[in-house]
Structures are given as C-alpha cells and as structure tokens.
Amino acid sequence: xxxxxxxxxxxxxxxxxxxxxxxxxxxxxxxxxxxxxxxxxxxxxxxxxxxxxxxxxxxxxxxxxxxxxxxxxxxxxxxxxxxxxxxxxxxxxxxxxxxxxxxxxxxxxxxxxxxxxxxxxxxxxxxxxxxxxxxxxxxxxxxxxxxxxxxxxxxxxxxxxxxxxxxxxxxxxxxxxxxxxxxxxxxxxxxxxxxxxxxxxxxxxxxxx
Length: 209
Fold this sequence. Notes:
Blueprint: H1 6-18, H2 32-40, E1 54-58, H3 62-80, H4 85-93, E2 104-111, H5 128-146, E3 150-154, H6 159-165, E4 172-181, H7 191-194
Antiparallel strand pairs: 1-2, 2-4, 3-4
Helix pairs in contact: 2-5
C-alpha cells in the first residue's frame, strides 16, 4: 500500500477545513482548462455498483441562468415565509446564493435509469446512486479548493421546475446546483456561523449498539 506522510495527512486535513460553501464570488472568468480539471474529478469518485450515475449540465446561456435565478428568488421568498420574528430578519439578511456573480453555473444530476452497474446495491437502496453523486461532488469541491476556486451549493430551489427549465432528461433528478468561481474572501469559519444562524456541534454524536 502507498504510504502517506504525516505532512500529507496534515495537508489533507487543512484542505477539508478550508473547504467552504462560497456565496461571495469575484466576477472574474475561470479558464476553461480549470473548469475541465474540476469536472474531471467526478470520474475519480466511487459509486454504487460502479454505476457512475452523475450527469452534468453547464448552465451558460442567459436564458437558462435567468430561469435558475428566478427559481431561486421565488423559492427564497417562500422559504422566508416559514420564519418569523428575529429568525425571519436574520434569514432575510443572509446571502444564500452567489448566482449573480459566479462565472460558472453547473447543475449536477443523478441518472436514476442508468443500466451501468446492473443495479448492484441500488436494487435494495436506490438512493445510493444519489449518494454516489454527492460523494463525487465532494471530491470536486475539494479539488477546486486546491486550485484557489470556490464552490457554492444552491439548495433553495424548486428542483422539478429547474429540471423543466433546463430541459433535463426525465430520468435525471437534480442533486446540486453549483456556482463555481474565485472566492471574494476566504475564511475558516462557515458564514452561517459568523452570521449567528447556527454553530457547529461541539462533539460528534456517536452511539454503540
């Protein structure tokens, strides 16, 4: 087996600490070669039954981007209605999307009908295909960070409407709408923590059975 040094392990831990969900981007373009480097990382990810169910749509046209932004705005307004008082005021102050500034928009889907993998593992737990896509996204997120790039995951969306707006195949389900670009700032602390929305757990919840 390949032996990893203490320095390598420490660097890997630092990388995981420095990964952030970025919402503040510079508008500078990202070289196409760097975008391709990030996307190629998806193929390094493990997947249930080796099904490799991730599918990518790059959202590049003004029409598609405007539809995605409108989708977010409507979903965000609806989400705000679920809060009241101080929590509503705090929610309204949060910047939950870098869609206006980020130079690259990437929609990542799971192909639920892929024959690849012959259903191994997914026959009993079909959600494993989507978990595989999430794992692939995580690897891309870390790789992007090593290049100085940031990724923001926009989760305040109507996924079914977005699939229609992007004309995604019927068997694809949206897993993530990602913004990719150069972070306007870098911090070790999650923005939601600095804004007072939530704090990290003091300890991991582990039980024996």
